[in-house]
Each structure stands twice: as C-alpha cells, then as structure tokens.
Amino acid sequence: MRRSLIALTFMSLSAGNAQIAEWKCKLAIQDEFISFRLLRNENGEFQILNGTETVQMELRKSKGDSLEFALSVFDASLIFPTNPGKEFNGWYRKGDAKNPGTGLRFSAQSELKEEAKKQNGLSELSGKWPIKFLDNNKVQDKGILVLKQEGNKLSGTIMTETGDYRFLNGEVNGNNGYLQTFDGGHAYYFRLKFSESGKDLNGEFLYSGSGKQVFRGTRDETAQLAEGFADVAAGKKISFSAKDESGRTFTQSDREFSNRPLVIQVLGTWCPNCLDETRFLVEEYGLKNQSVEFIGLAFERKDEAAYAFDRIATVKRKLNVPYPIYWAGKANKDSASKAIPAIGGVKAFPTTIFVNRKGDIQKVHSGFSGPATGEPYEHWRTEFREMLREISKD
Q1: What residues have CB less than 8 Å from 375, skipping those under 6 apart?
Q2: pTM here?
C-alpha cells in the first residue's frame, strides 16, 4: 500500500508539472560549492546532470510538502519541496553514512545564465598528472589525474590502483581551477593550483562535511599504474560462503557452480566503481560462453540482513542484473577473509575472481577502471574477454 501511495503521488506530481524545467544547484561542501544541474523532463521525472553523466532519481517517499528521491543505486537521497519554484533549498543525505541524520545543504535557482569567465592563461593542461595524496606530509595514496581541457572547461578522472574517481568536471582560470563530482554516492571537490610553467600541481581534496587531503603532482605522459592482476591465489581452490534473502547458504559446492567456470564479482552496493563494473558485467553477460557463470558477493556497510538484501534488490532491479548476487557479510577485511578465504582478503571494491571449471583460481583482479578512464576501460574489456576464454578451456 505504501509503495502504491508513493506511485500515485509521483503520477500526480508528473501530471501537474509536465513542463521541462532545469535548476542550477550548489551543494555546500565545507567552504566550497559543488555545482550540478537538476532537470525535470517532460514526464515529470527528475534527474541530476553531473558533467557528462546523468544520475537517475527515483521517488522514495512523499511527506508533507517535501519529496525524497533515491539517487542512482545508492543509499542516498535528495530532499526538496514538492512544488519547486524558481528558487528553493534542499538536503543531500546518505543512509549508510556514519551519522545518517546529517547531510549537506544545497540551493537551487532556475536562472541558468552563465557567468562571464576570465580567459585561462594556461592552455596546455590536457594529459597525465601523477599525484600523491598526503596527510601530515605522509603519502596515503597515489593516482594519475587524467585531464582534458577545452578552453576554460576541465574534465577527466583520477585513476588509482584500486579504481577511479569516475566523472570529474570543472574549470580553470589563470593558474587556479577545480574539479568536482556529485554522482549520488559521493560529493567530491578538488582545488587545483598550477605552476606558471603548467608542469606542476598542488591541490586540496575536500570530501564529506570535514574530510580534507592535500595532493601534489607533476605532468608525466609516460605515467602508468601497476597491473591490477594478482597471482597470489592462482592455483588455489575457490571457496566462498554467502546467503540469499531466504537465508539459504551458498558455497562453491552447490550444483549451480560445480564444474563450471566462474566469474565472481566482489562488490558493495555503496561503491561507485562497483556500479560501473556491474553495468559492464551486465553487458558482457549476454556475450559470454554459456558455460561460464557470473556470481556477485556483496559486502554491505550495515551488518543487517534486511538492509543488505534491500540494497542488493535495488541494484539488481535498477541495473537489470541477470546473475545472482548474494550477501557475503559486512564491508571489512575480516568478513571478506572469512567469506572468501583463498584470496587472503579483499584489497579493493570491486574485486573480480576468475575460476576455471576445476575450481582453481586463475586470476584475481583488484579494482576497476570505469568508462570515465577511456582507454584503460576499453583495455580491460579486452583483458576480461581473454580471461573468459582462458577459464572456459577444458
């Protein structure tokens, strides 16, 4: 009944607001703002425009004079008035945050006039920028910032050995610039400061309400990341344990998986790189050798079965996932080690395990380079298909 009432509310909203509308929004993150577009199409459906990416929204609840929309597949919401006018305020909240009652404030206005921008003095920023993230001058993480510049506009992503920061967009003026993203699961803002020569970069990475890291980089077109494949578990027998929503425990010994090549996706529904990999696997599923089986093992941020299976069901429904996804435990190394002992722990979400029909692990691949990375994404498609051929051999 509750879902029916929500559906009727949305139908009424759509019918009464069928005209196309668009708002320029500013999401407050510390002392900066992340800009995004909120669009209402001719069917009354709302979407977020995050640079070149469209983030789907689904009405979650209607209460009083406000609406709450779920964002993409994530446990995250955008809340704003039932009848948004030319200007309004709202909230962005994450249900799986450490403090789920808190959130980030955003403002919206329908005046979409672009502000005049000073012409950028640096015009050769496109390329690779190896960067190091620092805390108290200690390196915490490394990556490669891949930039594309068109006039004052910047786009690109940051690739790391465990994944990428997905679709980033921003601007540069003089020596200063920024990159940002708001994909429903994350709100990130990167301050950029380029040297006069255009060869060096200093910056600050802002995330959540208070998180901050500095980073430094130098342009280098030869920069490469380490190979994501690991042979540490090669030759070992696969073993895993996970449950479906009925409470049944599945292992590698079940008839569905015995004597079959397996692609095991280790994921979390909270993970944006897992979102990209799931879309990739859905595409590849229809092209694979019929003897190969795909399985998803989900590790969730809350150790509650009802919550985990609700999140899994949401991902399967919204992404049309044709293969089974089971709940394997909470999103931490201890749970992962217990659920999949042969690989000695999960280093990154997602992780992909390739198993031949004898049950031997052939390769373990940590991380995922998504569509925002361009060439690495297409390279992974080639590698993935080669691995399917390898595990399908008799």
Answers
A1: none
A2: 0.90
